[in-house]
């Protein structure tokens, strides 16, 4: 996955111009500049942080055509079993409200050079892939979007996706994945120069990850919208404390065994912004200059992990970690 920040702008105060019931439990929110100015550009796969309520910030993918400069569109599935962010969006955000959002950031960008692109969407995971589909269509690329959902009434953006014509394929399973798309069969034999992008709920992510594990390095890209439940790390740092040193000042912050690095830094007065606190959004990403890291994020690729870490979930494996702060 490549990681880019779209531009250097600060938070935006946008107007909710439209709220649209897109599918069962899914609302789409169209956000515009109140004075009609063009919005900062974004690329397919980008997301924004949405300040839903004081102290409640959530990340949502931009799902409209990245060529559009007059609006950002996000789609939110109301998740009654979630942490409350989607419920708050559905209950609080109304037409004509002002909402603070971050500039777009992209940890799920389209890689160049593919001969063919396969987009696999599970439920609300369609949002970043829909933006990709718009970009790929505009570029005249060879691509297919497979949209897996429980039933037609659960599938969002019917009108816009039908405009993409034969590129879009629906798979409805009636609530039983065994009746849906045969992901393992579909991904069994990767064609040359084909790239795969997928996004969806936990079971779907696992199925796609397992089925594409043998694909060539660098051809598989995914984005989690919720941190998977994974066993706790058994790396040495989980059971031993260490020192995080701030390179610019020499400040040494002692991080206890099991203590969260971001919290330890913030408690020591180090300015560090966090948002998702799950290794998903990249807000806290920091360069490190030396030390071994137990990476626990879901956004950095191997090359980035040589220089960066996300202290909201990652930590040192050794006794000293020097941060470029
Ligand atoms: S706060 Fe989101 S990755 Fe660390």
What does this molecule look like?
- This protein has a six-stranded antiparallel sheet with strand order 5-4-7-2-3-6, with helices on one face.
- 39% of the residues are buried.
- The longest helix is centred in the middle third of the chain and has 13 residues, at 126-138.
- It contains seven helices and 20 strands.
- A hairpin with a 2-residue loop joins β4 and β5 (56-61).
- With 325 residues, the chain is of the alpha/beta class.
- 16% of the residues lie in helices and 31% in strands.
- It has helices spanning 85-92, 126-138, 158-162, 183-186, 202-211, 261-267, 302-305, and strands spanning 4-5, 12-23, 26-32, 47-53, 56-61, 72-77, 98-101, 105-106, 116-122, 143-149, 168-172, 194-200, 220-224, 242-246, 252-255, 286-290, 293-294, 308-309, 315-316, 320-323.
- FE2/S2 (inorganic) cluster binds next to loops.
As a percent range, the share of helical residues equals: 10-25%
CATH level 4 superfamily of the largest domain: Nucleotide-binding domain of ferredoxin-NADP reductase (FNR) module
**Number of distinct helices:** 7
Specify the CATH architecture of the largest domain.
Answer: 3-Layer(aba) Sandwich
- Work out the strand percent: 25-35%
Overall 3D shape? globular
